[in-house]
Design a protein that fits this description.
Number of strands: 10
Shape: globular
Distance between the termini: 48 Å
Pfam family, one: ABC_tran
CATH class of the largest domain: Alpha Beta
Strand order of the largest sheet: 6-7-8-3-9-10
Number of helices: 9
Protein name: ABC transporter ATP-binding protein
Largest sheet: 6 strands, mixed
Number of domains: 2
Organism: Hydrogenophaga electricum
Strand content: 15-25%
GO molecular function: ATP binding
Family: Belongs to the ABC transporter superfamily.
Bound molecules: adenosine-5'-triphosphate
Helix content: 25-40%
Structural class: alpha/beta
Length: about 270
Amino acid sequence: MNASSTASASRVPAIEFIGVDKRFPGRNGAPDVLAARDVNLSIAQGEVVSIIGPSGCGKSTLLNMGAGLSRPSAGTVKVGGEVVAGPNMHVAFMLQKDLLMPWRTIAQNVEFGLELRGVKAAERRVISTRLLAQCHLKGFEGHYPNQLSGGMRQRAAMARTLAVDPLVLLMDEPFSALDAQTKMILQQDLARTVKENGKTVLFITHDLAEGVALSDRILVMSERPGTIVEEIVVDIPDRDNPMQRRKHADVGDYVARLMDLLKLDANADVH
Ligand SMILES: Nc1ncnc2c1ncn2[C@@H]1O[C@H](COP(=O)(O)OP(=O)(O)OP(=O)(O)O)[C@@H](O)[C@H]1O
């Protein structure tokens, strides 16, 4: 069965978590760690949903289960209506670190996943050329990662993530290591690219304004064991143009509400 075609035919959610717990065994006799508890979420195709929550609440753990890198201790994760039983080609990951291979050119990095799938060289080149142009890296195809800035490397990582044409992009703080302006430019690229390619995104961030700028919805998690305690629908226009959305008068109200939910105030414990 092909998850992409099945999902588009029936409009089933792109990704779903149903009653998901994740428990890690304790080391050296320590008790088990319950990282996530009874997580339920459903993301429609084409939606961009962010998850925010305190450090250590289980956000990355959820993405790992979405990618099939780790299995739920209870409950089910589905992508395109199919239970995720292991790593699969319907999801792609993008992390804070670009994880580009230094010995490969940017184009060769973008093409890597296609190579693994046996796509012919000429077709791979067409795809990498198109995506690198879309990610504003036209002319840099033959460069090596160490010849590019941090922002450019993350653009290349974005192109690589899109190259395998996943149903769902799982993004774990992908822009958090970038300076504020580069971050805004990459957010703009991501929003446009997601729109153009009709992708579904599950995005983790600690940057509340980034969540508001990019998302259709924001899911707020509790402290560990993390569960979803609030869902906020971002009812501001211009999801595809976060630069414009950031200027909207309501953004501050959303950020303030998220700060309240995360109990971020002058007395918050920053350690
Ligand atoms: N492989 C593992 N073995 C044991 N415990 C783990 C493992 N992976 C994660 N944990 C624990 O599970 C909890 C959730 O971790 P996770 O990385 O998902 O949190 P997070 O919300 O992404 O954190 P942050 O915002 O700081 O990145 C933490 O207490 C962490 O120590």
